[in-house]
Amino acid sequence: MTNFVKFVILNELEFMVTTKNVTFSYQEFENPAELETEDQELIAAAKEAANHAYAPYSRFRVGAAVRLESGIIVRGSNVENAAFPSGICAERTAISGSVTNFPNDRPLAIAIAAMSDEGLTAECVSPCGNCRQVIAEEEMRTGKQIRIILSGRDKIRVIEGISLLLPLQFCRNNLRLNLP
């Protein structure tokens, strides 16, 4: 994080303002063969889950696969609903399934793949804000970073934890009140 300090004069009062920058880094691969075998398997599981998505309205099918410490892979897909806010994303489906069925088996990585009618999307699809918050909560619950693998037809991105996608997270510490 880079800090910049400047002085601002507002209504004849002088204030010191600190500007901070957040950097974002990730690995990018063009060929899935460059990845570890476990990551290739996780991407394949995410693609398979996308094929099972229920997306009759958007026709945008998303699959996610979570690898747990035990090696178990939990899949999830997006499920749409005619009452649009009632649907659920693939990432939240997979994480909810892992917490429900394997509460003490911590996630190591999550792979995400999206498909349209033409097949796998060219670009990597990143988790929405709600899913980022759920991944952040799962990292907090387990005390372990979750690698995020975004798979597109033309490239694959690997991100080492949700803090890179969701800086300045809302978390349990924000809920604590400092009452006298």
What does this molecule look like?
Strand 8 and strand 9 (156-159) form a beta hairpin. The protein starts with a strand and ends in a 5-residue tail after the last helix. The protein has five helices and nine strands. Helices cover 27% and strands 31% of the residues. It has a single domain, classed as Cytidine Deaminase, domain 2, CATH 3.40.140. The chain has 180 residues and is α+β, with helices and mostly antiparallel strands. It has helices at residues 37-51, 90-101, 129-142, 162-165, 172-175, and strands spanning 2-10, 13-21, 27-29, 61-68, 73-77, 107-116, 119-120, 147-151, 156-159.
Condensed summary:
This protein has helices at 37-51, 90-101, 129-142, 162-165, 172-175, and strands at residues 2-10, 13-21, 27-29, 61-68, 73-77, 107-116, 119-120, 147-151, 156-159. It has 180 residues and is of the alpha+beta class.
Number of helices: 5
Please write the CATH class name: Alpha Beta
CATH topology label: Cytidine Deaminase, domain 2
Q: Helicity level, as a percent range?
A: 25-40%
Average pLDDT reading: 91
**Content-based structural category:** alpha+beta
The global form is globular
Order of secondary-structure elements? EEEHEEHEEHEEHH
Q: Biggest sheet, in brief?
A: 7 strands, mixed
Strand and helix map with partners:
Layout: E1 2-10, E2 13-21, E3 27-29, H1 37-51, E4 61-68, E5 73-77, H2 90-101, E6 107-116, E7 119-120, H3 129-142, E8 147-151, E9 156-159, H4 162-165, H5 172-175
Parallel strand pairs: 6-8
Antiparallel strand pairs: 1-2, 3-9, 4-5, 4-6, 6-7, 8-9
